[in-house]
Amino acid sequence: KHCCCRTHALLAQVSAPAQRAAQTRPSARMELPEIEEDKKVGSLYSKTDLQKAMSEFFNDILPRMDFVEDHFWTNIRIILCMICCSFGCYAQFGLKFPKDRLGIGMCVVGYFAFTGLVSLIDYFFIKTSVICIKLGDESVFVDVTMQQFSSEVELGLRSKKRHIKHKVSVGKYFESDGYLAAEALHADFVELVKKFTQEQAQSEKGETKKNK
Fold first, then answer.
1. For residue 34, what are the CA distances in angstroms to 38, 61, 76, 186?
2. Residues 6+ apart with CB under 8 A from 151
3. DSSP string spanning 162-175?
4. Residue 205: what are its φ and ψ, rounded to 5°?
5. pLDDT tens digits, one per residue of 149-166
6. Helix (H) or strand (E) holding 140
7. How far, in Å, CA of 174 to CA of 178, rounded?
8. 28 FRET partner, CA 20 to 30 A, in 13, 66, 89, 102?
9. What is the pLDDT of residues 165-194, one digit of tens each?
10. What is the CA radius of gyration of the chain?
């Protein structure tokens, strides 16, 4: 009986990391959902058009692949922008110059202060992300990055703990007539998700060993 109990305890310790790793794997469907309308860019030489098409693609398909969106930073950004607008509206319609110079000055300072917070959030957190999703217990930004005057695009999955990147020529994701090659972009995204979840599983195992 004692041997059986010890065996069950050892099996439980061995299987625990695997169970936690399984929990971090996405429950989403990995196949490409049907796309109602193919994305097409006006110019293959426009960085803005290319990024916009890829951004719209991810925003269309990821919710339909059952990925859970994380709106935390988006909501914070919206609240800060609403506060900025409130300062501007109050200064414009609620105060009179020169009678309320002090109040107008405070509104101006408040407006630029909260605008600065929005800029900091964009710079340090949102960066070049097009959507934020949940992978396991982590909030993950999906980045689409193109440098000015460059023909390469970098896809990335970024969280607080890890950053997985894939750089390739943007021509891989667009046909010569400007249509987005959805299958190629989807395939590379799926590979990024697999690498990300593998690192999650490895880090879970490492944390378990340290705790022992």
1. 10, 8, 32, 12
2. 169, 170, 171
3. -EEEEEEEGGGGB-
4. -65, -40
5. 999 999 999 999 999 999
6. strand 138-146
7. 6
8. 13
9. 999 999 999 999 999 999 999 999 999 999
10. 24
- Give me the pLDDT at residue 80, please: 98
Tokens found for residue 19: 């169970």
| Beta carbons of 158 and 172 less than 8 angstroms apart | no
Which of 164, 168, 165, 166 has the alpha carbon at shortest distance from 152? 168
Residue partners of 138: CB distance under 8 A and separation at least 6: 24, 159, 160, 161, 200
**What is the pLDDT at residue 160?**
94
Tokens in use for 138? 């982590």
User: How far is C-alpha 124 from the chain's CA centre?
Assistant: 13
Alpha helices in 26-98 (DSSP H): 47-64, 72-89
Task: Give CA–CA dist 23/36, Å, rounded.
Answer: 32
Length in residues, the chain: 212
Q: Which two tokens stand for residue 133?
A: 């999703």
Cβ-in-10-Å burial (0-12, 13-18, 19+) of 96 comes to: exposed
